[in-house]
Amino acid sequence: MKKSLFRRLLKRFYPRYALEQYRYRSHFEARRLNIDWTVTHFNRIAIVNLLLARRPDGNYLEIGCAGNGMFDSVIAKHKIGVDPEIGGTIRLTSDEFFRHDDGTRYDVIFIDGLHIYEQVRRDVINALSRLTKDGWIALHDMLPRDWLEEHIPRISEDWTGDVWKVAFELSQSADIDFRIIKVDMGVGVLRPLREGAHLLDLRQTLADKRFPYFYDHVMTLPLLDYAAGREWIEQALGQRS
Q1: Which pTM does this prediction carry?
Q2: In this structure, is residue 58 part of a structural domain?
Q3: pLDDT score of 2
Q4: Percent composition of the chain: helix, strand, coil (DSSP 3-state, to 5)
Q5: What is the DSSP track for 39-79?
Q6: Are 189 and 226 in contact (CB under 8 A)?
């Protein structure tokens, strides 16, 4: 009960405090994306289970498990969850986990760990090296709606961080097929088009960018609503069956 009350108070008052703290600094941005995540009931769980639908006996890896709301709902028979604090099956950071390659390859890898560009970028690169042939990677929190959700360090209950920066690299990587499905804070989905697929390096361009840059360029990203995203995934799965 106390925890629930604290969360309600945090959601109500902390954004106002953060706004006052940062509004006169370079962090503040008045513009906001008009997205209501409650319009569709489909979420990241639905997307990952769709990716696994034709391989329920396959291997699934989740980076960042927290309370296991996602992990426990995934249909894969063989599941590994990596989190340094709570949830999953392995208590390590993602860097520590990927450092030790036991030869296991995964059909689907879901990345929802630390929401900081450099970390997510490493997670994507490492995940690409651990996929099975025809495997998939999904990422959470790719569409911040305002500067509060995007801000680093975290100052909002709903926090995407700057995961979005990886989306610009993925969308311009020649040997990666990538889309963002507009549900549940933005779910990125990708499949390598060849073995040894390479992530484009845009760190020099993106390192110091913040929400205003994202707002100005978001429409250049490959965005799909859920219906179109499902059609794209099912078509790709059909080609690989």
Answers
A1: 0.90
A2: yes
A3: 47
A4: 40, 15, 45
A5: S----HHHHHHHHHTT-TTSEEEEE--TTSTTGGG---SEE
A6: no
